[in-house]
Specification:
The complex is a heterodimer. Chain A has 15 helices and no strands. By secondary structure, chain A is mainly alpha-helical. The chains are: A mainly alpha, B mainly alpha.
Amino acid sequence: MRKTAIGQALRHLGLLGGAIFMLGPVLMMLVSSFTPTGAILRREFLGSFTLDNYATVFETVPVLTYYRNSLLVCLGTLALQLLVCTPAAFALARLRFRGRDITVAALGALVLIPFQVIAIPIYLIFRQVGLIDTLAALILPFVGSAFAIFLLRQHFLTLPSAICDAAKLDGASTAATLLELVIPSSKPAFISLSVFTITSAWNAYFWPSFALTSNEFATVPFAVISFLNSESGTAYGPQMAMAMLAVLPLLIAYLFAQRQFINGLAMGSTSN
Amino acid sequence: MTAKPSSTAAYLLVAPAALLVTAFVLVPLVIVLVVSMFDVSLLKSSAEFVGLGNFQTELTSAAFHNALGNTLAYTAMLVPASMVLGLIAALLINGLSHGQTFWRAAYFLPYAATLVAMASVWRWLFARDVGIIDAIFGPLLGVSGWLNDQALALPAVAIVGIWHQIGFVTILYLAALGTIGGDQVDSAMIDGANGWQRFWHVTWPGLGPTTVFVFVMCVASALQAYDTIVALTGGGPVGATETLTHQIWTRGISYFDVGRASVLSLVLFVLSMAITVLQRRGAGRRLEMAGTR
């Protein structure tokens, strides 16, 4: 019994040591965002609390515009993705039609292609049709998501077939079955997908760095890099405040819904 | 009479998604192949067929060899380190009687946090003289200014990548450890096996499929490293952290040479496919599990 108590304590100790590496940067960001740059450069923290760093960020860049852009991209991507992918996933899981199996197989292959490979051609298409530097450019490529269809389809397959069959006996139409029976009984899958889509969209920097050319439609990550490049290299206080502003919304959500985040992201990323 | 939904309904339900996937995945795949054989001038809106010319220029260029070398070196640093550290964290957490949820969430947090923002924090931590890392490790290791040092910049980027990746590995291993039967471990304990023997003969083989899967995911993530590079070094100093994925941006968007950027995209495609095909079935299984959660 003693031995296990010591074992438990050692495990916690080991994890605490690792947490210095894992959470240290987050903590340093938090503390130094409230510390004047001068004190940061002298590595004197906690001595001089200030909100000046945040004030500087809000004075020099349109933070609220960045938030608005990011929010629109997150919600736009999610809403359109659900609207487009849910019916497709349902049909591929529950309806019989010619070409279904090959469509499923094709999606299974397409889900493996990294977005980085097709960024250049999508950039060229958007240049051609004048979509560069718009919010639509940040949303459109991710609406028809092979991953989302795959994930929802896998879930729909696990629903008891009685749900669909009973509905047919009642004469319910396909659409009614989907809306009234299938979707309400698939909450966990929709939550996971939503967490994954919103987090990916909020954190995305790769595609915005192709599709955006100005700060007008900058999402928060794009703005972080612009800010980093525009400020003199050592304005660490405002830089940490900017980083905090970027991380904060998801961090707060994470504190309240860790389980959903871990499920959504750990399994979601398995396709990218 | 049962009302059998017609195929028409099914096609209507699938059509929008099929159209978008075609437009934003299939068509771009074809375009990237085509464009790789053209010398495209974005400014003059002209294109000239050059056959394999772009491949010849790009694949023999010093910039490509540098980027490929850096990508492989980065992968060699990121993958083993995040796998070993992630596994250790998972084993430590899995054996806890209290606080599993807390530590799981703590170790996963870096994976959820906005990476460019956190990389900008690491940029300060790594800053010459004024950063925490120089303050602590400078005297110990006799090195400073990692991000400005040709030899240390890529390891510094890898450290941030590892920091980001560990939590993901930990979660996958924790899920797998949860499915390894307690019976086997118990019977091994009754046989008098010590901790290491139990791990090596019971736990580690049981983790086999997960290890292969985690390996594939970590390699994929290493090949796609981008956010950290932009925030930390921008590819420098003198190309020391220029990788394939970052080079796609540099060639295509910064230099407007989309022909050569397409060649780079295809190289990334081939590398990614080589590693994913290895474990394609595993990925499918994983998705199935995810869907039923």
